[in-house]
Recover the amino acids of this structure.
């Protein structure tokens, strides 16, 4: 089967992916933690909208999109017991703040993985699903940069996935922690992968994403500005 | 919950102290020649090893204290099989572009290959008989190792993480320890990164929100809490 390789993405600290080989067949978008509560608390509507543009452009180009959703369930004591007294709120599974914002849902063919901590690979079938789909490269967007996003990117990197963090589709718990976490990512010629802005990725995908994020034709949900509308079971 | 939060605001272990000293694993991460000594890999890359070397004396003192306190001592070594079958292609490529790749022959033997001189733990922190030594191919000590199972088998519930580098393997191990439900601390004065600003940024990230994945404390405070917790 002839692979149609996509143009390499200018990134920091190296042109991504490392061997120039990425295609619709072996690359997936990973959307991490774009949930109503965190998006609101981190004031990350713009980053969620960019993540939605990334996902829409990827879907049009034939790439798979996977999403992870963090939530605490009754009985998930270790995580909740540790974080709640420290004042670090994790959405309760099933609550309005736990729902994915509609613009950042994985789409009709995508899959959602539920997890309780920061690492979307821990205790989920995410790695198996990526392997089954033949994925070797990951385009990652998530919240917060210094929490869920980085924890998951670290794990993916240890697993051998070639990762690109889409910087402006991520937001940290502070700007300094966001920047620092991405700088650490690029240390040593990419300890955990590479970093690039959304525009660089969109340029490399076959069809430019011309639509505004609020009129995303590929998404079944139109109203990206109303994250609380959705009710999940 | 709120009252408990206030009461525990300064606690080393916000959820609870270990039941016994052996329930605490003292994790010494990757204190290998390749990372921490002149002539090792990082040094051969032209990077400055003074930060990672400087942590050897305080860590040696803390390790002695941990041994005397009866903690479960664990050493980790990052390294790959001689045939490099456990080395991801992108990891090898990135290090080669950086100057000297994993598996390549340097002045300290083959870089980060098991059994080579540069892969050895520095003599000041050499493991003693009976201490656990974990060989890991990734950055997290829990990735592709039996560390979790061995800790559970010994009844370990708490981790004290030290070693190098703070921004890479220490942070990865600490975060994964949290994911796995261990109550963990990082010993701030017993860890370092090659670049000072990355070390400082890592400590700031780990300390935010009072320590999302566990506390960041100095070794003296850790041992003080340990002693207080056991009378």
């Amino acid at each position: 089967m002839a692979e149609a390789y996509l143009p390499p993405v200018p990134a920091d600290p190296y042109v991504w992916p490392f061997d120039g080989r990425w295609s619709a067949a072996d690359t997936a978008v990973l959307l991490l933690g774009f949930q109503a509560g965190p998006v609101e608390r981190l004031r990350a509507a713009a980053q969620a909208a960019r993540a939605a543009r990334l996902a829409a452009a990827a879907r049009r180009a034939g790439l798979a999109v996977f999403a992870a959703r963090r939530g605490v369930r009754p009985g998930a004591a270790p995580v909740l017991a540790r974080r709640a007294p420290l004042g670090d709120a994790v959405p309760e599974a099933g609550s309005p703040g736990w729902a994915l914002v509609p613009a950042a849902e994985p789409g009709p063919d995508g899959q959602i993985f539920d997890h309780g901590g920061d690492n979307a690979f821990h205790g989920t079938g995410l790695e198996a699903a990526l392997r089954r789909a033949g994925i070797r490269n990951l385009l990652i967007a998530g919240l917060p940069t210094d929490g869920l996003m980085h924890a998951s990117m670290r794990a993916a990197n240890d697993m051998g996935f070639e990762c690109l963090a889409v910087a402006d589709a991520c937001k940290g718990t502070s700007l300094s922690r966001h920047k620092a976490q991405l700088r650490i990512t690029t240390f040593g010629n990419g300890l955990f992968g590479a970093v690039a802005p959304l525009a660089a990725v969109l340029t490399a995908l076959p069809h430019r994403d011309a639509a505004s994020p609020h009129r995303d034709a590929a998404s079944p949900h139109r109203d990206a500005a109303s994250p609380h509308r959705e009710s999940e079971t | 919950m709120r009252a408990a939060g206030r009461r525990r605001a300064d606690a080393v272990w916000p959820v609870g102290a270990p039941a016994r000293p052996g329930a605490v694993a003292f994790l010494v991460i990757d204190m290998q020649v390749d990372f921490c000594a002149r002539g090792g890999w990082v040094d051969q890359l032209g990077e400055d090893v003074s930060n990672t070397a400087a942590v050897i004396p305080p860590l040696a003192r803390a390790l002695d204290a941990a041994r005397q306190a009866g903690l479960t001592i664990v050493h980790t070594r990052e390294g790959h099989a001689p045939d490099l079958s456990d080395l991801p292609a992108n990891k090898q490529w990135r290090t080669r572009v950086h100057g000297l790749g994993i598996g390549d022959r340097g002045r300290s033997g083959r870089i980060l290959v098991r059994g080579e001189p540069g892969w050895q733990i520095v003599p000041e922190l050499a493991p003693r008989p009976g201490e656990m030594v974990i060989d890991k191919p990734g950055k997290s000590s829990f990735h592709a190792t039996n560390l979790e199972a061995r800790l559970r088998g010994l009844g370990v519930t708490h981790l004290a993480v030290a070693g190098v580098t703070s921004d890479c393997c220490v942070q990865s191990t600490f975060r994964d320890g949290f994911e796995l439900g261990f109550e963990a601390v990082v010993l701030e004065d017993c860890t370092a990164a090659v670049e000072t600003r990355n070390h400082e940024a890592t400590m700031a990230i780990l300390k935010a929100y009072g320590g999302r994945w566990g506390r960041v404390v100095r070794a003296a405070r850790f041992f003080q809490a340990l002693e207080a917790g056991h009378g």
